[in-house]
Amino acid sequence: MGVKPNYQDILNKLYEIVTPFIDEDIDLELNENTELGPDLGLDSLKVMKLLLIVEDSFDVSIPLNILPDVRTIKDFAKQLEVLLQEEL
Amino acid sequence: MTRLFNKFEPIKDALQSITGYGLESINVVMERVLSPTEALINGRRTILAGTNNYLGITFDPECIEAACRALREEGTGTTGSRMANGTYAGHIALEQELADFFDKKFCIVFSTGFTANLAILGTLAGHDDVILLDSDCHASIYDGCRLSGAQFMLFRHNNVDNLEKRLKRLGDKSKNTLIVIEGLYSMRGDRAVLRDIVDIKNQYGACLMVDEAHSLGVLGKYGRGLAEEICLEDHVDFVVGTFSKSLGSIGGFCVSNHQELDLLRYASRPYIFTASPSPAVIASTRVALKLLRTRPELRDRLWENSRTLYQRLHDMNFSLGPEPGPIIAVYMKDKEQALTVWSGLLKRGVYVNMVLPPATPDEHPLLRCSMSAAHTPEQVDIICESFSAFKELATA
């Protein structure tokens, strides 16, 4: 198994993955505190789609149980960091 | 000022955005139901092509008579849960009849199909277990997973490689894993890739639950669903289903050869703390199950109607779900198009379901038709002709 990405790597990758999900009419620069729901307008369908892309991208399974604890990109990155560590 | 209700603002906005199409598009009222396939809507005789009434037996005289007799003899309700004071002879008889129909040792009847999924998933899997569910599964399956406390993960719809990847990552925990799929998916109307999933489940020592809600009475020579159709019933650990579609009433069930299913009665909160189905519901369901078993011609008629509509919509170049069947998904480009076509069909006297994202499998709204054995060829013609009025708009 290869070297696991660190928090910053995860964050950068998440910015890359999330960017296409932003509606054209939303003028926003992503940061750690960007909220997936209120700021990006992601509904449950888009969150599920995002989740599947993130799983493929990091080669990790993401339990849906984490979603109640994920409001911001930072929350998501922290959860991913833990999941990737568990896989080591 | 309370902020408790702030969360409802997006719902208000969404409702606001779909008004102005001349009809209350979400809250259709059937002022009078005339038959399994017709009702008065806005004072107009309307063909119902979005009811899940697959076998069309909601007005069957024998079902109605059985329900009336039960009402007269056993009253309007059980007024309690099965565990406290609500098990009637009819509940037990229906459980035995379902077990016999599926050739399984154990059966539990629930008050709704939704409750069946909450009860089975919420109890069967625990904190040390994992549930892998197809991403197109019904909301009741998602909620059952949440209730269980187990880790639960999606796999891409009907994507066996994606499922296997997850099982592989789980290592030995794959033996504590329950895979959940549906026989026939309620939105796109396609079958599960059950044969491939069974191979994988056996390889990794997982358990498999199939929700045959939309396939009961629809698939298989005897109407037992997808697993029967492809001769894999012995490989399915738990079959869940509903009475509210082919059986024309309301309720749910689970059958299995695992004796632990019977123990679930003592552990499942959605089972223990829900009032049991009313005697009339049980009585009509029992007759409906008998009709399902003894009148295969209903299934033949359902499929004839379904294939006809699918083919004719296909010939008109509508974008449709992946395979012909009693659920026909007609994809729309966007919400505006969906609302225009849906309300136009209703004005022409045809009712179908309109499903908007995020309740859809992808970002496209869809008009969902569900066919019935009770639709006449003339009604199928009218449904097709009504759609044809919108073919330029919807296929552009």
Describe this structure in words.
The complex is a heterodimer of chains A (88) and B (396). Chain A is mainly α. Chain A has a single domain (7-86), classed as Non-ribosomal Peptide Synthetase Peptidyl Carrier Protein, Chain A (Orthogonal Bundle), CATH 1.10.1200.10. Helix content of chain A is 47%, strand content 0%. In chain A, helix 1 (7-18) crosses helix 3 (73-86). Chain B is an alpha/beta fold and 396 residues long. Chain B has a 7-stranded mixed sheet, sandwiched between helices. In chain B, strands 1-2-3-12 form a 4-stranded mixed sheet. The termini of chain B are far apart.
Defining traits:
heterodimer; A: 88 residues; mainly alpha; Non-ribosomal Peptide Synthetase Peptidyl Carrier Protein, Chain A; 3 helices; B: 396 residues; alpha/beta; Aspartate Aminotransferase, domain 1; Aspartate Aminotransferase, domain 2; 2 domains; 7-stranded mixed sheet; 4-stranded mixed sheet; 16 helices; globular
